[in-house]
Amino acid sequence: MAAKRRRRPRKVPLPPVALKSPVVKEDLPLRWVYYPEHYGTFIGFAKTANSKPVLCACTEGAVRNCLALALAGVRTQIYHRGDLRVLRLPSQDFPSRLVRVALGKDVDPMTWLRFESKLCHRCNVATPSLRFCHEMYGEKFKQGYGWYINQAAYRLGANPVWPQCIDDVTPEEIVTKITELKRLQDRKPETRTKVLDVSKDSPHFVEEVGGWPAEVFADPESEKELQRSAARLRRELQNYFENIAREEFGFRRVGEGWVSESLLFKIVCRVLPETETISSLPVRLSARW
Ligand SMILES: [Zn+2]
Question: Tell me: the pLDDT tens digits for 44-56?
Fold first, then answer.
């Protein structure tokens, strides 16, 4: 008798990456979901494909901080797809449908943006149907929920990309890290004159990188050390924001255990809305499997 052939599990294709502010239908209270531009932050929700998207009330503080940071610094000069007007709404962070509305209004966006409670994936413990980034640029959680990592940063008054924060909003430990990262990034490294010599035997030979002579540092060892320190700070900040988002969605923290009790609690509440569910059991029960 021929041995039974085991079927290999079929690979499920990964969802597409949300690139150009796509609009898709999902199983949420307002079904039309307006994603921001690639690597953006805030997601809009609408009843129909034509109605103006509304933001989730849980993001109001983050939106306010994002607008304040845009006004304060690096993101002041923001142009939308070739339009040379300076926008009051950072085009990278919001769905392009809202950015188009902002183009016609020279007023503080907080006067016309609308917020309604319990619309977003976080408030509904739902998984976005699109991905935040390609698998080359982030691990699983970032791919699936990257927008919510950015929201966590803005909620704390910190820019998720640049070393910039609102000192009286951002927690002190984050302000300290951001200030140090900014100092490292802004400093002018001491470099020797770059020399490009065609002869490999010449003492002046400098290897080309992408058609340009590679930078030669006066003190390469300490330069490397400074770059490593900056990279470490960037990673620590990213992990800090990501851990907040991970906990909100019930995922383990970066480098820790499994799906948390809080996610289980939220799922039970969602599946059994009529039943009273008690969380925070005084004793954690462990089952013998
Ligand atoms: Zn929400």
Answer: 999 998 889 999 9
Write out the residues surrounding ion ligand 1, Cβ under 5 A. Answer: 56, 58, 120, 122-123
Q: Which of 112, 234, 102 is nearest to 181 (CA)?
A: 234
Q: What's the CA gap between 238 and 178, in Å, rounded?
A: 11
pLDDT for 32-80, tens place per residue?
999 999 999 999 999 998 889 999 999 999 999 999 998 886 544 455 5
**Structure tokens that stand for 158 in this block:** 């910190």
Q: How far does CA 77 lie from the centroid of its chain?
A: 21
Q: Could you tell me the distance, in angstroms and rounded to a whole number, from the CA of residue 217 to the centre of ligand 1?
A: 48
Cα separation, 247 vs 253, whole angstroms: 7
Euclidean distance between CA atoms 21 and 9, whole angstroms: 33
Residue spans per domain, the chain: 23-271
Strand order in the sheet with 32-34: 23-25, 32-34, 44-46, 54-56, 115-116
